[in-house]
Each structure stands twice: as C-alpha cells, then as structure tokens.
Amino acid sequence: MDSGLWTMHLMEGELPTSMSGSCGASINGKLYIFGGFDDKGYSNRLYYVNLRTKTGTYRWKKITNFKGQPPTPRDKLSCWVYKNRLIYFGGYGCRKHNELSDCFDVHDAFWEGQIFWGWHNDVHVFDTTTQTWSQPTIRGGDPPQPRAAHTCAVLGNKGYIFGGRVLFTIIQIFPGKRLCKEPERARKCHEASPIHLSGRKGHLFPNLELELVKEDDDDDDDENQLYQESFENRLRSVMWTQFLQQTRMNDLHCLNLDTWTWSGRINISGEKPRDRSWHTLTPIGEDRLFLFGGLSSDNVPLSDGWIHSIATNGWKQLTHLPKSRPRLWHTACLGQEGEVMVFGGSKDDLLFMDTGHCSDLLIFQTQPYSLLRLCLDCIGKNAALLEKQIPCLPPKLVQEVLKKITFWAAMTHRQERKAETERQSQLQCT
C-alpha cells in the first residue's frame, strides 16, 4: 500500500483447487482458506499459507492431521478471528439425511441419494494452535436465521453478522376446504416427512409467513373453530399450499465469543441499510462497522456505504461515495489509518449477467488522516517541485517520502492509461 505497486508471488505446495464462495481469514501472518464450491460439489477442506515468508515463495499446505469434526461441506460462509481461533458461521451446502438438524434450512433434495441442500446457522471453531475443530454449546439468545452470503466482523469479544440470503416459508390456508378423505393417512404422511413441509427437521414451519385465503362462501363459525386449533393440526385438516421463497436480509446480530450467547436481532434506531447479500462489513476503530456494497433483494448491485456505531446503536449513510462503482462478492480490509480497501468482486448481478471481475482497488477514507500522512501525500504529489528539499529530510522520513513518490507516480500512470483507453474506445465508437 505504501508504494501503490502490485507484486506477484509464486505459489507452491498443496494449492487449493479453484473454488467460488470460499472463506478466507488471516491470523498470525497465515492466510486460511475454508470450504467453497466447484464442479465436483461443496468442500469442507482447510488450507493455509504463511504470508511472512522471507524467500518470496508462498507454500500452501492442506490441513489433514486435525482433531475433531469439521463443518459439513459448504460455501458462502463467514468467519470471525478471535484468540488464535477461526470461528465460522452459516453458509450454503449439503448434508446427508442423518446429518439434518435444527441449524439447517433445506432448500432442495435428492431423495434417491438422501442428499439435502440448504442454509446453515451453526457455529464451528478451529483452534490454529492445536489444529482442533470444535462446536461450542450456545448458552442463550436467539440465533440468526440460517443464511449464506452474509458477512461477519469482530469488535472486542463480539462477533457481528449482517444480512445474507435466507429461505422463507409461506403457507396459504383455505379455511373452507377441509380434507374429508383419509385424514389419518394424510396426518401420518406429514409426520413422516416433516422435511417436505418446512425444509427444517424438527421445525414444521420456520420463518413462516401465514396467508389466509378467504372465499365468499366461507362460514364464520368454521373459520373461528379453525383458528382455535393448533397450527400444525390445522394444516393436517385443511387445504393448504406451501411456497418456499428466498430473500435477503438487513438484520444485525451479535455473538459473544467468550460466553457463546446470541443477542437476538438488534433493534436499530433510525434509518438503516436495505437488505442485501455478497457485501462486506469491516471493523473501523473500537466501536464502528463499515458496510459496503452487495446485491439487494431485487437483484440490484449496490454502491452505498454505511457506518454503524455500537455506542449509539444507529446506522449513518456516507453520502460522498461514488454511485457508479457498485460491488458485490468483493473483499475488504482495514488500512493503517482507518481507510477501508475494497478489491475484486463484480459490478453485475451475477445471477443473470457477468461482464467480468473488477480489478480496481477502491479506498474509502472513514476518518481524517494524520498530519504526517497528509504531508507525505503532498510531497509525493509534488516531488518535482520539492526535488532539492527532499534530501534535507531525516533519513527515516526520506524512505517514507520515496514510497509516497512511487505511489503517486503509479497512481498518475494508471489514471493516464485509463483515460487513454476510454479515449480510444470513444474513437472506435465514432
């Protein structure tokens, strides 16, 4: 970042296969990659590479001698880094019939092979010191709905989750249409296959939206009697239709990473971001989170940025961000002076169109720069004018100044090259 130049390093060892939706996290100078999806299906493999090598060559290693039970195969999950541990949450993946549990919302199934696909809300921990997998016992609170393509961030000992893609179940009930034939057989069928009804083992209708379909000749007495019955018995005795619908969320949750208690959905005061998935959430300072981009529930790529304050429990939208630089499925990290750097991803709705991945680096300033940083930038931009004065600076500052000169020279070169490319494109169009 100091010089503004990219460098390419050779990769050796047990390289991870090309995947989408993998989860990457850095801890103690090592980059860990877990899960993902390719043409062979979902993965639960874990790799790491040491980024602090002195040889310039990075060597990947697949972790196979671990202890404990890893998560089931999945992609589009997120991770918290806390106390030398990688703490994974959620994701979309597959499970066998005997692996179905309350932490899994089924989206689709291959009945012959007893394979189910869906969303998770379970928590798994990998201790990088002992190379041990474990699943903590959640001691309280309401967990977030199973989801994927959400984002995670850590502030202190709290792990935050925002948004993501989820599954809703909508049931339409027809009060005047009771089942008259073989009700006992229908009841047994429902009890034997709860997964058909809800998509979640042990929970008939999670995240339910109930829609009562009224008819002109409905009998009020029948309707009143209907609503006095329990919901599950009701569905066994009336005509109903089920719809599974996917949507995206804008909810914020928090998990205490010491006590393993959930906050439940955090009630936000004031305005808040729209629902989304494939976004990023970056901690800035000790009590703020920076949210950027993603894909909305109506499949619109987003370019908005928001800051959430833990102290005030409110969101504030940044109005100075460019509207023409949407990003989704990108990465983000925090710089040395509070700037958030966004790289990669796409600017399109990947479900319907993909014109290519983004290769530019977006830098968002979330707080004023230090006086030293401002002076170094000024010298770097005006190196030709200050050429004779620069050697008079202290040796340590000279090194910093040279990096800034390189940075701004590279920045100017990229801008000139981009302008030339746009000019050539306009000439070809005319």
TrEMBL record:
It holds the Pfam family Kelch_KLHDC2_KLHL20_DRC7. Keywords: Kelch repeat, Repeat. InterPro entries: Kelch-typ_b-propeller (IPR015915). It comes from the Eukaryota. The keyword Zinc does not apply. The keyword Secreted does not apply. This is Kelch domain-containing protein 1 isoform X1. The lineage of its organism: Eukaryota, Metazoa, Chordata, Craniata, Vertebrata.
